[in-house]
Amino acid sequence: MVVIDAKLACDASPRVSSSTRFAGMELDMRIWRRIAISVIAIFAFYQLGLQFVNMTGNFLMMLLIAWLVSIAMEPVVSWFEVRGKKRGLGAGAVIIGLIVFLILFFATLGGLMFSQLSAAVAAAPDVITSATAWINATFDLNLDSTKILEQLNINSVDTTSLATNLAGGLLTVISSIFTFLFDFLTIMVFAFYFSADAHRVRRSIASWLPAEKQKIFLTVWEIAVKKTGGFVISRVVLASISAVAHAIFFAAAGIPYWLPMGIFAGIAGQFIPSVGTYVGIIFPALFTLGDDPIKVVYIVLFASVYQQIENYVIGPRISRATMDLHPAIGLGSAFIGVAIFGTIGAFIGVPIVAGIIAVASTYGKRHELISELSLDNGIEASAD
Question: Dihedral (C-alpha) 53, 58, 61, 67: value to the nearest 10 degrees?
Fold first, then answer.
């Protein structure tokens, strides 16, 4: 009886037909096929993206620089716009003014700068050798100048060839590196269009967003342009003042190759945060060390005094309407910019991060500190 009931139970249990199992296997195969196709498609688009970036990387970099230039032009262009003038007129005035300034600069000081720069490049191996010998004799070290030159990839053949090209002046440089002129004109053209058609570009991007997102986009755009533009233009003004001050001091103190050294010190001091001032005087000090070591002390003293004057007198007046970056954040952004964009990243990484922080500080939510973290309580506790 038990055997019969068991048999009946087995007969009564539902059975999966072969057609149902086949349909399930077919469904599983379709899912795996879709997954495989999706993975292949993602990989293919990834490879195409890499190829696109590799092929157009230089052009994309120029667009980024042009965008930063257009942002730096915004205060002047806005000044024209407020007075009823077209944005194109203001953008054109800034571009033409910049080109005229560069032409006048190279016409008056270009020959001197390139001749000094070529002499400095040619003298680099001997300078490093003499500086190494002075350091060994002064600090009783045993540094090998030959190994240092090899690590820096500096040799007399390459430096002599480069010095010969630089000695020909601006026309020789442009004729041998024609892409420099083409890239510069490309940046200026796109900077003009970015600035002149800023409102049209903003409306075009906003048209892809819903109404509630358009308000957020408008706020982000205005903050980025105002803060980042103010930051860039303040850095440019401070770099120009610093370059002039350092060049005048180097010339008066008899520092070799004072013009390119002064320009480098001014630019490095503003666009390489925290350590930029010291990076800017490394080369003047190195080229002076083997000739007259006491002048190195003069260079360090001048740079230290100028840095204090800039921090407490010049800088606050120029950067009053712009944002301040913490030195650690600025230095980190410069390093990240170099890692992503190369050498130019040291200069464009800082303003990009400045714009990101400006937007984040507007939409970021902050909370009140608990009593244990209060500054007043910490001071009272330390006083006790």
Answer: -120
CA–CA gap between residue 160 and residue 155 (Å, rounded): 9
Distance CA 300, CA 180 (A): 34
Query: Residue 374: what pLDDT?
Result: 62
Q: Are residues 95 and 77 in contact, defined by beta-carbon separation less than 8 angstroms?
A: no
pLDDT for position 25:
59
Residue 273 · residue 292 · CB < 8 Å:
no
- C-alpha angle 278-279-284 in degrees, rounded to nearest 5: 90
Q: Judge contact between 234 and 325, C-beta under 8 A.
A: no
Is it the case that residue 382 has pLDDT exceeding 90? no
Provide the 3-class DSSP secondary structure of residue 382: helix
**Residue 158 in tokens:** 């390459």
- pLDDT confidence of 246, banded at 50, 70, 90? very high
State how far Cα 73 lies from the chain centre: 18
pTM reported for the whole predicted model = 0.69
A 10 A CB-CB count for 297 gives: 12
Burial of 333 (0-12, 13-18, 19+ CB in 10 A): buried
In the chain, the N- to C-terminal Cα span, in Å, equals: 93
Q: Which residues have C-beta within 8 Å of that of residue 241, sequence separation ≥ 6?
A: 266, 310, 314
Cβ atoms of residues 333 and 352 within 8 Å? yes
- DSSP letter string, 191-236: HHHHHHTHHHHHHHHHTTS-HHHHHHHHHHHHHIIIIIHHHHHHHH
DSSP 15-44: ---HHHHHHHHHHHHHHHHHHHHHHHHHHH
